[in-house]
Specification:
three-stranded mixed sheet, 4 domains, GIL1-like, DUF641 domain-containing protein, mainly alpha, single chain, three-stranded antiparallel sheet, 17 helices, DUF641_pln
């Protein structure tokens, strides 16, 4: 059988048929093959097949690449999910710890606030009936509870700064603002307490002065001057005690007015008396010393150096009788009533002069609010005010002592202990009351002493300090 000759066209047809009937390797499609044929050299029909097989051997298939990438993503996702779970667990534990800390702190805050309320209720209860000991204890309790709240506030701020508990809401009121009303009430109560304490001290001094006056009146019928018409040493001693009680009461009244006016008592007393005052108790003694020194200044002269009278030298006996008569007439008289009738009498001139020396203008304005008293006194009048009435009672007590001193024969000589002097119990008495130690000396004199004609002594009052120390 003769074979049909093979032409170039037949070969092209066979290759094309084979390509169309068989799937090309490496997932090549017909369109891919056609495109590659169009792009490559037309003279070499096998070039595409060879190059395609080479490419298949050099690079993986797209399915393999997708599968490998999927495996990597799964591995990364597993690691990421594990890290997120760990972080979530740690955050939950930390949040629980913060919540426990916050709950514990809030429980302490509520307990502290309850403590403040209880202490404040006790402070109110101590006002009625008035109990100074309970007041001091309740005051200390309120202060302690407020300090506890302040410590809790500081602890909260430190914890918030360290990140242990959430920071407070800026819109919420801080603890300081919550405690501020209690602090204001506490300050007001403290001022009221000081005012009441000064008032109590003043009432005690007035009670002592009234008791001394009553004892003096009870002593009058049995004294020799009632029957014989002459003053006695015993009467002088009694009047001296009354004068000291009156000056002490007026000093307490001055301190009460200073506290009521909001003046620093310690600093004001130090400035007024020139005594190094360091405490309210010492201020009380220093103010008494200032009042006594002002009212008794010039006591050795028959008219307190208000004029140049020398009646005691011209006719001593008549002068003594006149002084004793004035003493008896004035003893039962209110000083304001006397000055209302005779404002420019000897006692009126004495009171005006001593008021001016006792209270400088700046002190008068600080405690009384104005200078009306001074203007009235300088004009020859005597104000009818409670304050000036207290002053007149003290001035009258000293004036009565002065009248009686110049009615005695011989008149008593007065003496005063200087600063740093040795303590002599026969001539001095300590305001502390307790027996002084051997190393104590006079810090400042509070009241002069008197030596009477029969040898009796009215001892001087002194404030003692350690040797080399200051009041």
């Amino acid at each position: 059988m003769a074979s049909k000759p093979v032409t170039v066209g037949d070969l092209i047809h066979r290759v094309a048929s084979s390509c169309l009937s068989n799937r090309l390797p490496c997932n090549y499609t017909i369109r891919d093959s056609v495109d590659s044929d169009l792009d490559d050299d037309e003279d070499d029909p096998f070039a595409d097949a060879v190059s395609s097989s080479d490419k298949c051997r050099r690079s993986p298939s797209s399915a393999e690449v997708v599968e490998e990438e999927g495996d990597d993503d799964k591995k990364l996702k597993i690691w990421e999910e594990g890290g997120q779970e760990d972080r979530k667990a740690a955050a939950a534990a930390k949040g629980a710890e913060r919540a426990r800390d916050a709950e514990a702190l809030m429980a302490e805050v509520f307990d502290a606030v309850s403590g403040v309320r209880r202490a404040y209720a006790a402070l109110q209860g101590a006002h009625c009936p008035w109990d100074p000991d309970k007041m001091r204890a309740a005051d200390a309790a309120v202060v302690a509870e407020l300090r506890h709240l302040a410590r809790l506030r500081d602890r909260f701020r430190r914890s918030a700064a360290a990140g242990h508990i959430p920071r407070p809401n800026p819109s919420a009121p801080p603890l300081r603002e919550a405690v501020a009303p209690y602090e204001a009430v506490l300050d007001d109560l403290q001022r009221q307490l000081q005012s009441k304490q000064a008032e109590v001290d003043g009432l005690k001094e007035k009670l002592a002065a009234a008791t001394a006056r009553r004892n003096g009146r009870h002593h009058q019928p049995s004294s020799k001057h009632q029957s014989g018409g002459a003053p006695t040493v015993e009467l002088f001693t009694s009047i001296a005690e009354q004068a000291r009680a009156a000056t002490r009461a007026f000093a307490g009244h001055l301190l009460h007015l200073m506290r009521a006016a909001g003046v620093d008592v310690t600093a004001a007393t130090r400035s007024l008396t020139k005594i190094p005052v360091s405490s309210p108790q010492l201020a009380k003694h220093a103010m008494e010393a200032h009042v006594t020194r002002s009212l008794l200044g010039g006591f050795e002269h028959e008219s307190f150096y208000l004029d140049g009278s020398l009646s005691s030298l011209l006719d001593p006996a008549a002068f003594r009788r006149e002084r004793y008569t004035q003493f008896r007439d004035m003893r039962g008289m209110e000083p304001s009533e006397l000055l209302g009738v005779l404002p420019t009498c000897a006692f009126g001139r004495y009171a005006a002069a001593k008021f001016a020396s006792l209270l400088p203008p700046r002190v008068e304005e600080a405690i009384l609010g104005d200078g009306e008293h001074r203007r009235a006194v300088n004009g020859g009048a005597h104000p009818r005010t409670p304050f000036y009435g207290e002053f007149l009672r003290a001035a009258k007590a000293v004036w009565m002592l002065h009248l009686l001193a110049f009615a005695l024969e011989p008149p008593p000589s007065h003496f005063e202990a200087g600063r740093g002097a040795e303590f002599h119990p026969e001539y001095m008495e300590s305001v502390a009351g307790a027996p002084p130690r051997a190393d104590m000396v006079v810090g400042f004199a509070m009241a002069p002493g008197f030596r009477l004609g029969n040898g009796a002594v009215v001892r001087a009052r002194v404030y003692l300090v350690p040797r080399g120390g200051r009041p």
